[in-house]
Protein backbone atom coordinates (compact mmCIF):
# COMPACT_ATOMS: atom_id res chain seq x y z
CA UNK A 1 0.00 0.00 0.00
CA UNK A 2 2.37 2.66 -1.19
CA UNK A 3 -0.43 5.20 -1.32
CA UNK A 4 -1.59 5.71 2.26
CA UNK A 5 -5.34 5.22 2.30
CA UNK A 6 -7.76 5.51 5.19
CA UNK A 7 -9.08 2.58 7.13
CA UNK A 8 -12.54 3.21 5.70
CA UNK A 9 -11.24 3.22 2.11
CA UNK A 10 -9.32 -0.01 2.69
CA UNK A 11 -12.35 -1.67 4.25
CA UNK A 12 -14.57 -0.61 1.34
CA UNK A 13 -12.02 -2.01 -1.16
CA UNK A 14 -11.87 -5.25 0.81
CA UNK A 15 -15.67 -5.54 0.79
CA UNK A 16 -15.68 -5.01 -2.99
CA UNK A 17 -13.03 -7.72 -3.47
CA UNK A 18 -15.00 -10.18 -1.35
CA UNK A 19 -18.16 -9.41 -3.28
CA UNK A 20 -16.44 -9.94 -6.66
CA UNK A 21 -14.89 -13.20 -5.51
CA UNK A 22 -18.22 -14.47 -4.15
CA UNK A 23 -19.83 -13.84 -7.54
CA UNK A 24 -17.51 -16.48 -8.98
CA UNK A 25 -16.96 -14.61 -12.25
CA UNK A 26 -13.18 -14.18 -11.87
CA UNK A 27 -10.73 -16.48 -13.60
CA UNK A 28 -7.93 -18.09 -11.62
CA UNK A 29 -5.40 -15.32 -12.26
CA UNK A 30 -7.86 -12.58 -11.31
CA UNK A 31 -8.89 -14.53 -8.21
CA UNK A 32 -5.29 -14.88 -7.06
CA UNK A 33 -4.58 -11.21 -7.68
CA UNK A 34 -7.74 -10.24 -5.79
CA UNK A 35 -6.86 -12.60 -2.95
CA UNK A 36 -3.37 -11.07 -2.64
CA UNK A 37 -4.83 -7.56 -2.59
CA UNK A 38 -7.38 -8.68 0.00
CA UNK A 39 -4.68 -10.10 2.26
CA UNK A 40 -2.72 -6.83 2.02
CA UNK A 41 -5.84 -4.80 2.81
CA UNK A 42 -6.68 -7.06 5.74
CA UNK A 43 -3.19 -6.59 7.19
CA UNK A 44 -3.46 -2.83 6.69
CA UNK A 45 -6.84 -2.74 8.47
CA UNK A 46 -5.55 -4.90 11.34
CA UNK A 47 -2.59 -2.54 11.78
CA UNK A 48 -4.88 0.51 11.86
CA UNK A 49 -7.20 -1.18 14.37
CA UNK A 50 -4.24 -2.09 16.59
CA UNK A 51 -3.03 1.52 16.48
CA UNK A 52 -6.49 2.82 17.37
CA UNK A 53 -6.80 0.30 20.20
CA UNK A 54 -3.51 1.47 21.69
CA UNK A 55 -4.64 5.12 21.52
CA UNK A 56 -7.92 4.29 23.26
CA UNK A 57 -6.06 2.28 25.89
CA UNK A 58 -3.81 5.24 26.67
CA UNK A 59 -6.70 7.67 26.91
CA UNK A 60 -8.98 5.65 29.15
CA UNK A 61 -9.49 7.11 32.61
CA UNK A 62 -9.08 5.23 35.85
CA UNK A 63 -11.62 5.35 38.71
CA UNK A 64 -10.07 8.56 40.09
CA UNK A 65 -10.50 10.41 36.81
CA UNK A 66 -6.83 10.21 35.94
CA UNK A 67 -5.73 9.04 32.53
CA UNK A 68 -4.15 5.64 32.73
CA UNK A 69 -3.52 2.66 30.50
CA UNK A 70 -6.28 0.11 30.82
CA UNK A 71 -6.93 -2.97 28.71
CA UNK A 72 -9.33 -2.36 25.86
CA UNK A 73 -12.57 -4.29 26.45
CA UNK A 74 -12.54 -7.00 23.79
CA UNK A 75 -15.77 -7.90 22.04
CA UNK A 76 -18.00 -5.15 23.44
CA UNK A 77 -17.68 -2.93 20.36
CA UNK A 78 -18.61 -5.86 18.15
CA UNK A 79 -21.80 -6.50 20.12
CA UNK A 80 -22.81 -2.83 19.98
CA UNK A 81 -22.58 -2.69 16.20
CA UNK A 82 -24.01 -6.11 15.51
CA UNK A 83 -20.86 -7.38 13.85
CATH second-level architecture: Orthogonal Bundle
- Return the CATH class: Mainly Alpha
Specify the number of helices: 3
N- to C-terminal distance? 26 Å
How many separate domains make up the residues? Answer: 1
Helix content: 55-70%
- Strand and helix order: HHH
Q: Main beta sheet, described?
A: none
CATH topology: Helix Hairpins
By DSSP, the count of extended strands is 0
Radius of gyration: 17 Å
Strand fraction equals: under 5%
Uncertain runs: 77-83
- Derived structural class: mainly alpha
How do you describe this structure in short?
With about 80 residues, the protein is an all-alpha fold. Helix content is about 65%, strand content about 0%.
Description:
With 83 residues, the protein is mainly α. It has one domain (7-81): Helix Hairpins (Orthogonal Bundle), CATH 1.10.287. Helices cover 66% and strands 0% of the residues. It has 3 helices and no strands. The chain has helices at residues 7-23, 28-59, 76-81. The two termini are 26 Å apart.
Name the features.
83 residues, mainly alpha, 3 helices, 66% helix
Write the layout of secondary structure elements.
Elements (H helix, E strand, L loop, with lengths): L6 H17 L4 H32 L16 H6 L2
Helix pairs in contact: 1-2
